[in-house]
Input
Amino acid sequence: MHHDCGDTDRAPRRLHDKAFWLLGRAALDAQRFTGEQLVAAGMRRGFYAVLATLAEVGPSSQAEIGRRLGLDRSDMVAILNDLEAEGFVIRQRDPTDRRRNSVMITKSGKTALARFDRAIVQAEKAFLSTLDDAEQKEFVALLQRITHRR
Output
């Protein structure tokens, strides 16, 4: 599958074999491509990360979710409002601290998360279609090694 590279082909030749440049271009392309697939599946900004967090860690406060994801308070409020309007989450008073809300994923939210998971798998498959299965696994493994060193 050919992806629109915009003006990247006109970038200076010395950048064409530099990992930082190629990785940056690939990341932008992957985000745009995957984003299009997720929007087609009904997802909006922040939905996937918040739903995935709730599915993994269970009911959480708005502040806790924001800290885990590096989202500021106003973004979290907007995302949770949208998720609640879709019926994907519910907010309830935290029984241990009445001043804060506890956010929980709903059955509908779990169904949506599964739909988004499938959309991401399909988007990645299409995005990486120029690589065979073994190369795709190796590529992901290499990215994990690069991004997990500390």
